[in-house]
Every structure is written in C-alpha cells, then in structure tokens.
Specification:
11 helices, eight-stranded mixed β-sheet, membrane, transmembrane helix, five-stranded parallel β-sheet, alpha/beta, elongated, transmembrane, Glutamine amidotransferase domain-containing protein, 39 strands
Length: about 675
Amino acid sequence: MTGEITFDPLLPWTVLAVLGAVVLIAAGLALWRGLAGWALRLLAGAVIVAALAGPSLRQEDRDALSDIVLLLEDKSASQKLSDRAAQSAEAADLLEARLTARPNTEVRRVEVGDGPDNAGTMLLGALNEALAQEPRGRIAGIVAISDGRVHDLDRVPDLPAPMHLLLSGRPDDWDRRLVVDTAPAFAILGEPVTLKFRIEDTGNAPPGLFEVPLEIALDGQEPSRVMVPLGASFELPITLPHGGRNVIQFSTPEMDGELTGRNNSALVQINGVRDRLRVLLVSGEPHPGGRTWRNLLKSDSSVDLVHFTILRPPEKQDGVPVAELSLIAFPTRELFLEKIDDFDLIIFDRYQRRGILPSLYLENVARYVRDGGAVLIAAGPDFASAASLFRSPLSAIVPASPTARVIEQGYRPEVTDLGDRHPVTAGLRGEWDGDWGRWMRQIEVDPQDGNVVMTGAEDAPLLILNRVGDGRIALLASDQAWLWARGFEGGGPQLELLRRLAHWMMKEPELEEEVLTASAVGQDMRILRRTLEDVAGPVEVTSPSGETVTFEMQKVAPGQFEAQYQGAEIGLYRLQQGEVEAVIGLGPAAPREFEATIATGEVLAPVIDPLRGGVLRLSDGVPRIRDVRMGRPASGRGWIGITPREAAETRSVTRIPLLPPWLVLILTLGLILAAWLREGRR
C-alpha cells in the first residue's frame, strides 16, 4: 500500500493564485490597521483557497512485478562452426537457470537464426521484436550469446537496460577465406577478362605462409592449380570458352585447424557474349530477296557485314573493260583462304558456280564448317542447275541434293512436327497474327542428312538444318522469303525466322536444340530441358556435398521439359540427363555468414557501451550475475549486472479528501468567529 497527496482543483490554478494573493493582501491590510484577528482571518482565507485546490490522499494497492531479462541465443550459420553451438547452448542453459533462481526475475529466451536472402545474422531485429512484446519498465537486462558478427546495425533499438555480449569461440581461432573483389557479369568471347581476388587469414593464424594454392574449375571440369600470394590482392585473366553462362569455381584447400572451409571457395558466373558478329554475304545475282538479307543483318548493330553481289556474269561480253566491272576488286583469295576463319557466318544467296570461286576456295569453305564455322544457302533456281553449289566440294556438307525440279506454284510454308520442337521454328506460329502469306517458288530437294523443320509445296522439304563436325549448315530451298517482308497476302514472321536461323548458326546458347539449362532465384532452381525427342528422361542433380537426387521432368511445350528443385546447400550443383549436362551455382558467391567468422565484440560495441554493458568470452566461463543501479558500470571481470526495476501493478486506487466540505465550513466559520470575538474584546 502506497499513499501520496494529490490535488484536483475546482478552479484553474491561475484563479487560485489570484485568490491566494487577495487573501494575503486582506490579511496585510488587517495587520496594518492593527486588527488583532488578522492571523485568524489569514487562516480562514487559506482554508478556503486550500479547499478549492481539492487536496486528497491517494492510496494505491500494488502488487510487485518481476524483472525481465532477455536472453538472445544466436543460432545462425556461423554459430555452427567448431564447437560454438554446444558451447553457446550450454552457456544459455546455465544462465537461464541462474537468472530464474533469482527472486522476482523472469527470463525471455529468444533464438536468432539466419536472415532471409543471405541477410546474415539479424540479432538486433530480433531484439527489437522482443522489446516490443514486453513492458520496457520491467526490462532489467539483455544478454546476447553470439560470435558478435551481426548484420543489422541499422536497427539499433533504444535500450531500457544494459546489454551484455557473451562471445562464443576460442581466442586461438583462425580462418582463411577467399574474397572476390571484382568479377564482371558479362565478358566478350575471345578476349581475356580480369578477375581480382585475395586470400587472407584472420584470427590467430599460423605464421610463415606467403603463398597458397588456388584451384580453378570451369563448368565443373577438372580444376587447374596455381600458386598465389597470401594476404594480397591479385589479378587473374580468364578467357571464356563459350557463349552463355560460364560457371567458374575458385577454391583454396582447407587447412588443419581453420574454422571452416565454406569460405575457401567462390563461384563466379559470367555470361559470355560476342563482341561483333562477322557475316559474309555473297549474292549470286541481284534479286528482291538480296535486299531482305542485307536489311536484316544491317539492322543488328552487333553485326559486321561484308556483302558482295555479282552484278554481271563472266560469260556476258559487252566490251566493258575489266577494270570497270566492279567498284572494287572481289578479294576472293583474302576472303575465302586467308580471312575465312574470321567470319561467324557465310551466306550464299542464289549463288551458282561461275568460275569466280575456284574449287580450292569451296573446299576451304567445307573445311571452315567442319572446324566450327557456319554456312547458310538460300537457294533459288541456280541450286537446281548444272552450276549448283551442290555440284562442288560443298556437296560433302550440304544436307540435301537437288532433283533439278523447280516448283513454280503458290504455297504456305508449314512447320513440321520436328520443327515444333526445334528452337529455330518452335512457337513461330505465335509470332504472327493471322495466316502466313504464300511463297511462289521452291526448289525440290532430296534430304540426305539433318533436320527438316519446315515444308512447302507438295510437303517438300523447305528448311533443313544440320551439324557438320563442329560447325553448322542450313539450306533454305526457296528465294521467296522476301514476300513476307513485303507483306504479300498478309506477310509472315520473316524477320523472326531469319533472325533465329542466323543466331542458331552462330551458336547462340538460347537456340541450342539439345541442351539442359537451369536458372536460380535464391535456393530455388528451375531446370529446363530442350530436346528434339518426344520424351526426356529423368534428370540427376548432384549437390555440392555429393548427394544425388533423381526426378522426372514435366513436359511444358513440344520439345521442352521443366522441373523445379530447391537446393538446401549453397554452392555448385551438377545436372545431368542422358548425354547432356550443366552446372549452376545456388546462393551467393560468398555467403554473408562466412565473410568474417572470428568472434569479436567490436561490431556491437556502439550498442553496448552507452549503458556500460560488457563483452566477455564464454571460453573464460559463464559470468556471475549482480544487481547494479542504472548508470553504474554493469560488468566486470567474471560478472555482468542487471538493474532491478521494482515495477509494480496497481490493483486498486482510493482517494480520501483532506478537506471535505463540512470540515471546510466548520474551520472557516470557526476562524472567522474567533477573529470577530478577538477583535470585539478590544
């Protein structure tokens, strides 16, 4: 039970002050006039003013409330290193028991895990939530058991009591980590890209080491090893071997005694892109389709186009001097012998043998394809003639032979069942609203190899794609694609078809017909299998730890199969389905929890110091607990302090007026009567 005097004035305090002043002035006048009852008059006025102030005795019936101590237990990934988990759990249990055994004390135990999306240890965020759930007037102390590596210092709360940090780990802990300073997301194929790294030791590392081995593995292949300096940044030039995603894993072997090997490796994923696509377009004669090819290739700013058109056949004799037959001399030897490997694609547009390109040059073109080049033949009536390119050394790589028949009739190109699965023509129907316009001419060919992805008149093969050695060749058995570009009978997806065709021949990764790819968002993996087959077998996923999971893929479109997978580990995953395979990295290149692993109190020092909390090591033992007053040092050698709050809950409140009306009336009348009697006797 507690009591205090409170006031509930009937008039504003300003008015009461004026009344008080009037009473004093009246008493002063009575004294000045020599009235003997001036003191009694003063007391009567004071009683009236006091009564108007409404004094009362306020009595509260209170129950004492217990003090609350918040115990934060860090269970993030870095706390699982070495014996930290067991050390922290044992200390938390012992502290909870000691605090619970104290009189009038409760413990709120809060577990802190890893934050989402590689956010790290969100200890202060958890502390904010715990403080929001408890009355601040009851918080007597905050104890955090952690390695001190927290990652949310932007959420520092206003602490109502001292905070203490009990550090896990050992004083002799040390760790080695590999740090990627710079790594580009894109790089140009064929040109070296420089990555900047450093390997550093932290903590109580063993002395005497100046160089350490670094292993480099591309797309999960056998790694190569180089020696690099320890503790200093170094640059490593790398040339990407292929377009699309290149997954490069860098690692240094784990040493005996270091805390973890999780930060000894890093995954870098770089997309390889071509700087410029070099295309050689040779038109056998002027025709409406020639400008279509030129406009298509020139519309792409990344294409370097070399275009030659034979304006006049050699057999035509009109007396024009040879020096005036062309704007520049046709550099056949330079293009088809010396510089041919500099081109990514060669297009023969209605070209026929006229003695301009000797057989030696065409043999070199066939060699160029086998070594990885690409040739596209856009055939016109020339392909069915005796001067056809098929009747040259190119016949060894051309996927179909002409029958010498030229079909002169209208027809609508159609995508075959195989074409619905091939990336060049898959979904092509959806690229154009309405029916496709007709073409008016087609060269009849007899397929000998490759994939027929489009047919034309009389269901004859129209577009045939094939791989030869390391290269690719395509045969378009018509010179009428330009009709779509002109909008004849509504036109068609000419631009998209020719764009896909050209980029497939130049080996763009997204247009590969037999490929296994994966994309990742966080730890979720989307696996896509593209194939020309009707079915796709199960895919096998191997995690960084070597665990293998096999599951079926679901068909989502012709030739496309998909699966979803959630990886529990961070690192390099290997995917395999039949003869195709892929690699992908899940999670961040360097998990935040393992960027720094040595326990320290420096990170939380700005939070702990203002209320004079302490940082102690658990390796020195679990500290004792003392009571301290707010503002006094709250920690010392082997002990931490909590501040008892003496909080209480009010159960009932009683108000007793000190000057009830009847008492005021009696006192006032009595004092006035006494003053009158005293003054009347004189």
